[in-house]
Design brief:
By secondary structure, the chain is α/β, with parallel strands linked by helices. The chain is built from five helices and nine strands; from the N terminus they run H-E-H-E-E-E-E-E-E-E-E-H-H-H. The radius of gyration is 32 Å and the shape is extended.
Length: about 290
């Protein structure tokens, strides 16, 4: 089919996976699984507009999630260098290598090496995969003019609504989690599963299905989990933050209540009766 997930991925040259703002664990797990499955065959990048949470660190490859998109163009800038002090910038090719020359105006000095700043801009992706989300507010990158001609795909358990006349090919359908849906999409595309991908998807399904107690959990959900385990997937337990494991004051920002000073045991907590401090006189009965 022309509009199947497999056919679109097959015809794509470069793919950009977009996570929504403040994503859930399941969304990050599903996006990472797609990234790991696609990167060996296609030029693929994954971007999230908000920072990754500590709890996402148990996902394989989460360090590949970028906060900014775009690596098409190399941008060379100069810190604290005024443009009106530069006469011209020329580009030459010497021995097959590109060389840029910055010529200052008379009376001014050339920019120093430590002033050079390198960055990237522009997006080369021709196919975008949106993970989850409900509208364009969750994906601010869609407003970029660099993405105007790209095909937009959506993967989620609920349909997405985009304004501005954007055409979206949706692969959304009810499921226990987005990660469960990604398993079928990877299989449809012939990308297969390895241990790392399966591990991420297991974590996503478990979290997205509320520990398999969600209303959309079906027999197919457990069949999918079984297949992921057979593929080498590992169930990684959730790391819970236990404040009791840390001494008072060790957690930044935590307000602790100071315990009242305890008196030495010899003093006691109350004043003893006065007769306790007086000499004791014991009276006995006469012995007949």
């Amino acid at each position: 089919m022309e509009n199947s997930f497999a056919s679109i991925i097959s015809s794509a040259n470069s793919i950009l996976i977009l996570l929504p703002s403040k994503p859930y664990f399941d969304q990050v797990a599903a996006g990472m699984a797609l990234y790991l499955g696609l990167k060996e065959k296609k030029e693929t990048s994954i971007v999230c507009p908000t920072p990754m949470l500590v709890e996402f660190n148990r996902l394989v490859g989460v360090n590949k999630v970028a906060s900014e998109m775009g690596s098409k163009n190399l941008v060379i800038g100069f810190a604290d260098c005024k443009a009106n002090e530069i006469e011209k910038v020329s580009a030459d090719v010497e021995n097959g290598e590109l060389k840029l020359t910055v010529v200052p105006k008379a009376g001014f000095t050339s920019p120093r090496k430590e002033q050079v700043q390198l960055s990237y801009s522009g997006i080369s992706a021709d196919t975008i995969i949106l993970i989850g989300g409900g509208n364009e507010v969750h994906f601010p990158a869609l407003s970029s003019s660099d993405l105007a001609g790209a095909r937009i795909l959506h993967v989620g358990t609920r349909a997405i609504s985009l304004s501005g006349g954007k055409t979206v090919l949706s692969f959304a359908r009810p499921a226990s989690s987005i990660s469960e849906l990604v398993v079928s999409l990877l299989g449809e595309s012939g990308l297969g599963l390895d241990a790392d991908i399966a591990t991420n998807l297991l974590g996503g399904i478990e979290d997205g299905s509320r520990d398999f107690k969600g209303p959309d959990v079906t027999a197919e959900t457990f069949e999918t989990v079984a297949n992921l385990l057979r593929a080498g997937g590992r169930r990684i337990p959730k790391e819970r933050f236990d404040k009791s494991a840390f001494p008072p004051g060790a957690i930044p920002g935590e307000v602790t209540q100071q315990e009242p000073e305890k008196k030495p045991a010899s003093q006691g907590g109350e004043e003893p009766p006065k007769d306790w401090l007086e000499p004791k006189i014991f009276k006995g009965t006469s012995i007949s």
